[in-house]
Structures are given as structure tokens and as C-alpha cells.
Design a protein that fits this description.
This protein has helices at 42-58, 87-104, 116-125, 142-154, 162-182, 198-209, 232-237, 302-310, 318-321, 324-334, 341-366, 370-389, and strands spanning 5-10, 17-22, 30-31, 34-37, 72-79, 106-107, 156-157, 160-161, 190-194, 213-219, 222-225, 255-257, 269-272, 291-293, 314-316. The protein is an alpha/beta fold and 393 residues long. Helix 5 crosses helix 6 (198-209). Bound molecules: nicotinamide-adenine-dinucleotide.
């Protein structure tokens, strides 16, 4: 199905392209972040917007006590390296251009290449009240809801903002659920992560705190590895604003390896948490892990996933695994949880465990991949959502 809105923008100063795709509206609103990366394409943004529709639907439940009711899916993208000195100006001009959509139908936030602080600053410069202002008419008590979200954004846990931790908490819980189902103990289970930004950084923290051993992490500069286990907190503390680790923080036993080395280290779990399309038909052959947990969006190409499945390697799909960030925003804004880290992590863990269990059970029963099972669950729910809240497409 084609998306409801699909537009391409060109910056009049630099000629750079930006995209906005609204896949679907629910109650007149859609949700999805904005990414900035060199090479970002309309196809990529269209796929990501579709994924957001699924993530929203996967968190739909008819529990009358639930206050967050899922929205439609959307995504924005800007084709520019976020470290380019012109990037911030392009971001402001993009937001100014798409401002009518953000004011009315597109609630957005940070994604790859951007942090929420930068998005908020640019949005204010572009004349926006908030990046999620389209949702304000749906709130019972707008002032209280906005205060709750602002308070939640101010919460820090051991040097990292709660908003940057909720998603990784969910990714880690999905991985732990798969280990529990397979009867594999956490202690000694090895993990390799691509990307140590918002998602990869938080996932590495939660998995190492659960007792797993993070043996490799990759960022734009290459892979850092230590078979005995890396000092995750030291690496997290040595990141710059783009998630690049200062190599001065490495210990004598840590080794620096090429960019793709994270794929083939000895580990039971791989967590791609950086770019889309990271695992393709060629490099999948080097993977020996048992699980690939998609913290990033669309990191495994479909043809690669077929080959991995044939080799008994399970991919836990992005639409399930990384859906916790988006859900956390809404649980907080709608008031399912307060601005408190323990409450947020407990709710995230409970929800992500239930969703991962449901997905894996359905996959097992139907003899499909977990991704096919997740898509089937979303496909079952989308008509129910449209029936309950109306058709907007
Ligand atoms: N931030 C969110 O709220 C959120 C939520 C759900 C999914 N995601 C997805 O997670 C992924 C990462 O997003 P993020 O917000 O954590 O990004 P980020 O910008 O915070 O961090 C990106 C990390 O990936 C590394 N990286 C970039 N290109 C790389 C490459 N070619 N090879 C190796 N490492 C590379 C960077 O050095 C950095 O460590 C994206 O696919 C994004 O769509 C993000």
C-alpha cells in the first residue's frame, strides 16, 4: 500500500534533499523520528515509515486501563552527514519547510545522526512549540502531560538521560527473552554491538548489567574488541555527541579492528544498532552468532535474512525489538507511567517481554521467521485499530 503522504524537499542553500513519509494516520496523527545521514533515500524513509505503523500497531491492546492508544507511522530523513558543518542549518530549514505537517499530523523526535537536544533546538528556531505538538489535541490534560514528558527527559541514570535509555532497555529485554526461551544463561553469553549511540549504548549497558559479556562494539571509526569483555561504562563515558568513542579510553587488552569485524567475532548475540542495510548477502556468511537483535531499523536485508534463517540464525525484528523508545514517549505523555526511571524500565521490560514472547510463539506455531510473525500480528491489529478509531486513508 502506498503511503498517505510522501514528499521530497530540496534545501535552497545547499541543494541537499530531505524526505517526509507519513505511512498512515490513526486518530489523525502519526509518529516517527527524523534521521540524518549521507545517502539517506526516499525508499529508506518509506520503509521506515511503514515500520513505524507496525511498531505502533504492535503496542496496541484493548486493555481499557491503557491510556496510550497507538498512532499511525511516519518518518523523516535528511541526506547529509550529521558532522557536516552545514548540517544544523539544513536541519532548521527542513523543519521550517515541513512545519505545517509537524503542527498537525507528524509527531517526531530524534533518530540516527541526531539527538533530541539538537532536534528540540532546531525545532524552536523553526518556530515550533514542540516536536510532538500534533498530539496535544488528543491529550486530556495537555499542561500536565507536557510537564510529565519534560520531567522524564530531565531524568538521568548514571550519566545518561532516561530518553536515551528506554529504547535500549527494550532491546535488551527482547534479547533476554530469547535467551530465556532457549534456556541459555545470561552469565558468559557474549554480545557484539554495531553502533554505540543512543540505541547501541543503552543496549550494551543493560545487557552487561544483566550479566552478559560485551566483547565487541563498532562505531564509525571501526571495531573495538576484547574477548574477555569490554568495560562498557568506560566506553559509554568516552563517547562524543555522535556516539564515537575516544580511543584514548581503551585498556591495554582492548584491540582495534576494522569496521566490519564486529560481525564475525565469537559471540552468541549480534546487535546491529547503527545504519540500515548493514547485513547483506555477502557479509552474512561471516556471522556465527545464534541471534541477531535488530536495535537499528532495517539493518538486515531480506535476502540476507533468508540465508541466515537457513543456517539456524534467528533475527529478532526491528519492529518488535526497538519499539520501546517510541512507546516510552507515549506511555509517559499519556500517563501510563510517571517521569521515573524505575517505573519506566519496569513497564518497558514487561511490555517488551510480552511482545517478544508473543512474536516468538507465533513464529514457532506458524513455522515462520519472527519478522513474518510480527508482521502478521500487526496485520491482524491494523483493521481493529481502523475500526475503533476510523479510517484516515
Ligand atoms: N534513537 C532512537 O530513538 C531510535 C529508536 C528506534 C530505532 N532507532 C534506530 O537505531 C539506529 C541507531 O540510532 P541511534 O539514534 O542510536 O543513532 P546515534 O546517531 O545515536 O548513534 C549511531 C551510532 O552508530 C555508529 N555508526 C554510524 N555509522 C556507522 C557505520 N557505518 N558503521 C559502524 N558504526 C556506525 C555511530 O558512530 C554511533 O555510535 C538507527 O537505525 C535508528 O533508526 C533509533
Amino acid at each position: 500500500m502506498s503511503p498517505l503522504i510522501s514528499l521530497t524537499w530540496h534545501d535552497h542553500v545547499t541543494g541537499r534533499a530531505g524526505y517526509l513519509v507519513v505511512d498512515r494516520l490513526v486518530r489523525g496523527v502519526s509518529s516517527g523520528g527524523l534521521r540524518m545521514r549521507e545517502g539517506c533515500s526516499l525508499d529508506e524513509v518509506t520503509g521506515l515509515a511503514r515500520g513505524m505503523t507496525m511498531k505502533e500497531a504492535l503496542h496496541y491492546n484493548d486493555d481499557p486501563a491503557a491510556r496510550y492508544i497507538p498512532l499511525g507511522g511516519a518518518k523523516g530523513g535528511i541526506d547529509c552527514d550529521p558532522r557536516d558543518p552545514a548540517a544544523y542549518g539544513i536541519l532548521v530549514r527542513y523543519l521550517r519547510a515541513v512545519r505545517p505537517y509537524i503542527e498537525t499530523v507528524w509527531t517526531m523526535g530524534e533518530d540516527l545522526g541526531l539527538t533530541q537536544d539538537v532536534v528540540d533546538k532546531a525545532a524552536a528556531e523553526a518556530g515550533l512549540v514542540s516536536t510532538v505538538q500534533a498530539i496535544h489535541p488528543l491529550l486530556d490534560d495537555e499542561a500536565a502531560a507536557r510537564r510529565r514528558l519534560a520531567d522524564a527527559f530531565a531524568v538521568q541514570v548514571d550519566g545518561i538521560g532516561l530518553d536515551e535509555l528506554a529504547g535500549g532497555c527494550g532491546v535488551a529485554e527482547s534479547a533476554l527473552t530469547a535467551l530465556d526461551r532457549a534456556g541459555v544463561p545470561y552469565g558468559g553469553t557474549r554480545v557484539a554491538v554495531q553502533g554505540l549511540g543512543t540505541m547501541g549504548g543503552a543496549t550494551a549497558r543493560f545487557l552487561s548489567r544483566a550479566g552478559l559479556k560485551v566483547v565487541a562494539v563498532a562505531d564509525v571509526k571501526g571495531t573495538i574488541a576484547c574477548p574477555a569483555g569490554l568495560d562498557v561504562e568506560a566506553l559509554l563515558a568516552a563517547r562524543d555527541a555522535f556516539g564515537t568513542v575516544d580511543r584514548a579510553a581503551l585498556r591495554p587488552g582492548d584491540r582495534e579492528l576494522p569496521g566490519e569485524a564486529w560481525l564475525s567475532v565469537d559471540a552468541e548475540i549480534l546487535v546491529p544498532a547503527a545504519v540500515s542495510y548493514a547485513i547483506d548477502t555477502a557479509n552474512q556468511a561471516r556471522i556465527t552468532a545464534r541471534w541477531i537483535v535488530e536495535a537499528a531499523n532495517m539493518p538486515v536485508l531480506p535476502e540476507a535474512e533468508e540465508l541466515l534463517a537457513a543456517r539456524g540464525i534467528t533475527v529478532l525484528p526491528d519492529v518488535v525489538v526497538n519499539s520501546g523508545t517510541n512507546a516510552w514517549w507515549w506511555w509517559t505523555l499519556f500517563g501510563d507511567i510517571g517521569p521515573d526511571a524505575d517505573e519506566a524500565f519496569a513497564h518497558t521490560r514487561r511490555s517488551m517481554r510480552a511482545l517478544t514472547e508473543l512474536t516468538l510463539q507465533r513464529a514457532e506455531a506458524a513455522g515462520t521467521t519472527p519478522r513474518a510473525a510480527a508482521h502478521a500480528i500487526a496485520a491482524d491489529r491494523l483493521p481493529l485499530i481502523a475500526e475503533r478509531f476510523g479510517h484516515y486513508r
